[in-house]
Every structure is written in C-alpha cells, then in structure tokens.
C-alpha cells in the first residue's frame, strides 16, 4: 500500500531504481519463515547456543512464549526479528490496570528494545481455547492496554496480537462457510478484529493440518495434508475456489470468517504450524518422514509467496513449530515431538527455513513411515525408563485415588502385589488408570513418568489391563 501511494512521486525515476525501491519496501513484509522456540524441556541447550542453532536453520524470525531475559539478550544484534508473549495468567489483571501494563512493558520490553529486534507481542497463547470465558472478555482490553504502554514508552514498531487455534471457528468446511463460534463472535472476536484492523496488526493463527487429518484419516488423504497430492483437488461449492492442500483450506476458512464479520482485509500470520516426528502407539502418521515432508513443503510454499486461493500472491508470514523436541510438554506423545532438532542440537531431518534448498537437494534419505495406518492391537501404559523414582510414588497415589478399583490387585494379597516394588505397582496402576479413563481424556503421561508399550507387561497370574485398538 505504501509503495502504491508513493508511486506517483517516483514515476520519473529510472525504472531500475523504481523496481529496487518497490522490492525493498515489500521486503519489510516478507515471506521469511521463522521458528517457535519453546522451553518446556529439562535437557535443552543454553539460549546462546539455541540462537546459533536458529541461525543454522536460516530462520529470520523467532517466537518465544515469554520474555526470557537470557534469550532476549542472546538475540541482541542478531538481525533476527522477535515475537514475545505476555503470559496468559497476567491478562485479567492487565486488562483493567494501565499502570500494571506500563510496568510490564517497562520491565519486559524496554530493557531489550531496540537492540533485540522485538517486532511482535502476543497477548496470551490460545486464550480462547485454554481458559475460562471470564478471561476471554479481558483479552482485547489487555491488548489495548499493552499497545498504549508501548506507545507511552516510545516503542512504535511492535505489533500487538494474540494467537488463536482453529477451534475459534464453529464451521470451517467448506472454507467459504468459515464462521467464528457464536459464544465468542460478538463479544471477543469482533472487538479483536477491530483492534487488529485499526493498528494494522495480524490475525495470528495456529494451523496444524496434522490434527484434522489424524482425526479422520479415511476421509482426508494423507498426501493432501502433506502438500503431496498430485491427482486430487477440492472445489469449494460456495466460492468456486480450488484447493490442492488442507493447509490452504484451514487458512481460508479463517479469512472467510473475518470477512463475514466485516473485516476482509486483516492479514494472517501463521503463529504455529508443523507436523510431529513421533508420538504414541495410538497416534497415527507421526513420524520423521511425514514431518520432514510437511515442513519442507510448507517452507517451499510460504517462501514462494503463492498465498492461498482466497488471497493469491499474498505473503503469509509464519513460524514453524518447533525448534526442539520438548520432553516436558504435557499431553499425548506428539506434543513432545514437533521439533526440528533433538535436545542435543542435532537435526532430526535436514531442513532449510530460508527456502533456498530445493526438496530434491536434501541428500540424507528419510526413514520409511511405519505408522501411517492406525495401530491395531493392545497397548499398555507403564513407568518410563529413567523415571524419577521419588516422583513415581505421588503418581501412583494419584492413579489409585481415582476409584473404580484401579489399584486393588496391587494391594497386599492381590494378584499383582508381588514383586513388592513401587515401580511395578505404579506400572500396573498407570495401565489400569489409562484403560479405564482413556475414553474420557485420560492419558498415559503422568508428568513424563509413563510411556506406552505394545509388549504385554503381565506376569504370571497378574494380568495388566490395557487398551485395545
């Protein structure tokens, strides 16, 4: 837009200079791909080492989930643009207290700016997905307070936003039917879009094709989710737009939803996207081959500035999730396997976030996928190798406290009491708990103390409950 306004004043300049100025202007809002730098691991490299690794991936942007001073100091004078985050738990207080907002900016942004190129500040992470609705209504007021605080401190180059998952939509199929949920549309999303539009900020979207594909792999082709579809396209009956991949469908559903509320022009920034390189036995398609294929292809797409069918040719800036496999992330195994790097800094697979390396130029062969179809058989949940024995006792107590005779067989005289060992008893309790509660959200995790196995741990007359898939 700026280049177009200035074009009338540049018309008499030599064509080469004009071309250079236009390309330089557009380069400020570019197709560079960034990386999400999470810290939920107890074995991760130091911030200074991590910054060197980020450079080795040729990432030009990095997003962190806090304002860690060691990380921000390590990013000084690096020319890497940075996105920081206000923690979810501070949103409610800051939403009604400008003084507190000013203090937070003075303590967490001003000491590093401008030597660290902080350019984006996200107020919370997936607030509308993860917190009660009281916090939802505090979100936009907090965003306004933070923006005012930045201005008051002379910080004008930082865009304020918040990250949203796809569950902000109540309808996403077909994309032209994209609609925000009724419970947030009027009181949360519309004021947020008004703020983003006024401040020329972005709708920061977390878009993972892995999740809709893995929840319905018979209806959605894997190749369509991986940008590998050669013979299948989807035509939106409402818009007539033709889609060649699932990612574009997801992004355009949000674009149509914003248009439906009267904001057709707000730019989208992909705050998170990626594919898991591993996971649990009951999770499909999470492997190195698919992760490398997806991330290499998404980088190729994003750096080509192809846009989406609803916005062809429009730059879609992005952050890939994530830098490391993080061993302390809760939830299913995939949550701990989204990294491009192992915690020791080595690459899980070759990737170049600049997009300069062509897919065929990667030399190291990828391991063949072994779980692209759902596992069929029985799975048990046992104590993980190397689990902290002092923590196992508390987890055992938790599993046994859930009732339903979860731990009766490991009580004195029970069929699974011997060997009389906390690890043995905990393995039985974990498996029993998981077998009973998996259908209602129970996981085989226990703060990292548990792992799935397809080897039956039963011994003698002691039969471990398991999950049959």
TrEMBL record:
Signal peptide positions on this chain: 1-27
GO cellular component: plasma membrane; plasmodesma; side of membrane
Gene3D superfamilies in the record: 1.20.58.1040, Glycosidases
Domain X8, residue spans: 379-464
EC number: 3.2.1.39
Key words, A-Z: Cell membrane, Disulfide bond, Glycoprotein, Glycosidase, GPI-anchor, Hydrolase, Lipoprotein, Membrane, Signal
Membrane topology value: Lipid-anchor; GPI-anchor
Gene Ontology biological-process entries: carbohydrate metabolic process
Keyword Ribonucleoprotein: no
Location relative to the cell: Cell membrane
Cross-referenced SUPFAM superfamilies: (Trans)glycosidases
Catalyses which reaction(s): Hydrolysis of (1->3)-beta-D-glucosidic linkages in (1->3)-beta-D-glucans
Enzyme category, top tier: hydrolase
GO MF entries: glucan endo-1,3-beta-D-glucosidase activity
Family: Belongs to the glycosyl hydrolase 17 family.
Protein name: glucan endo-1,3-beta-D-glucosidase
Gene name of this polypeptide: A6_0
